[in-house]
């Protein structure tokens, strides 16, 4: 059984090339891990590891656009910066009544 961690190691040089491509396009804060997480969370979220073939993985890496990865990274930043609000049952009920 192939797992995503071993796949990451196998395609690390391809990920490096893609991040270098992003640098050449003016996007300097994208890492190999960011690209990989994007693919796992957005592109392959409904795929089994066994269904992914090497040609598909490499194609998905190279076809990833600057806009896609920048939006993904910005969405993550918004979520990371969002305040966590904890409400008790009474507060939730009061909000629902309004």
Architecture overview:
There is one protein chain. The chain is mainly α and about 100 residues long. The chain has one domain. It contains six helices and no strands. Helix 2 crosses helix 3. About 5% of the residues have low confidence. Pfam families: Post_transc_reg. This is ComN-like post-transcriptional regulator.
Summarize the structure.
The chain is 68% helix and 0% strand.
Shape: elongated
Number of strands: 0
Number of domains: 1
C-alpha-based Rg, rounded: 18 Å
The H/E string reads HHHHHH
- Biggest β-sheet strands, sense, barrel: none
Mean pLDDT: 85
List unreliable stretches of 5+ residues.
78-82
Number of helical segments with 4 or more residues: 6
Q: What's the N-to-C terminus distance?
A: 52 Å
Helix content: 55-70%
InterPro entries: Post-transcriptional_regulator
Pfam families: Post_transc_reg
Protein name: ComN-like post-transcriptional regulator
List keywords for this structure.
elongated, mainly alpha, 6 helices, Post-transcriptional_regulator, 98 residues, ComN-like post-transcriptional regulator
Topology:
Layout: H1 4-10, H2 12-24, H3 32-43, H4 54-63, H5 66-81, H6 89-97
Helix pairs in contact: 2-3
InterPro entries: Post-transcriptional_regulator
Protein name: ComN-like post-transcriptional regulator
Organism: Kurthia zopfii
